[in-house]
């Protein structure tokens, strides 16, 4: 479901960024684009509002795998009161970080696919955001011999890649020892 009023939403995001950058003492500039044209390598991400940040403090946004960048994006999503299924309507980027991350995830998906085909065993990716999990699922959707599932909870959600007809072995009963 698209944003009801993209321009009004972009203005809310702009007010949030202006205040955050000023109060936080950041040396950053931003450009907000409504209905941005995106290059083909970002074909799985079509936001209604794209926020591109740049400036001397860009490195701060990209530290720890873009944690601050994702946090700003999350706050903007909360300000706009977007539901979980609507998070893709707003996207924050800095120095092409998103495009590089998508390329990295696609490569990881290809490597994992080869590994699962050779070993016949499932492969578990590390914890990822919902957007990153979606990229993995989409990167592997055309591999008829494989299937993906999300597993885990909260911050530990991750993708598991299986051979298509993989049957999990029944879990053995846990062994408890009694100390006396």
Structural commentary:
The chain has a three-stranded mixed beta sheet, covered by helices on one side. The protein is of the alpha+beta class and 180 residues long. The longest helix is centred in the middle third of the chain and has 23 residues, at 97-119. It is elongated. It has two domains: 6-95, GMP Synthetase, Chain A, domain 3; 101-163, 2-Layer Sandwich (Ribosomal Protein S8, Chain: A, domain 1). The termini are far apart. It contains four helices and six strands; from the N terminus they run αββαβαβαββ.
Strand content: 15-25%
The overall strand count is 6
CA radius of gyration: 20 Å
What is the total domain count? 2
Shape: elongated
Strand order, sheet with most strands: 1-2-3
What is the mean pLDDT?
Answer: 87
Structural class: alpha+beta
CATH architecture of the largest domain: 2-Layer Sandwich
Total helices: the number is: 4
Task: Give the fraction of residues assigned to helices.
Answer: 40-55%
Major sheet details: 3 strands, mixed
Blueprint (SSEs and pairs):
Elements: H1 6-24, E1 29-34, E2 49-54, H2 58-79, E3 90-94, H3 97-119, E4 123-124, H4 130-139, E5 146-151, E6 158-163
Parallel strand pairs: 2-3
Antiparallel strand pairs: 1-2, 4-6, 5-6
Helix pairs in contact: 3-4
Summarize the structure.
This protein is an alpha+beta fold and 180 residues long.
Index terms:
180 residues, alpha+beta, GMP Synthetase, Chain A, domain 3, Ribosomal Protein S8, Chain: A, domain 1, three-stranded antiparallel sheet
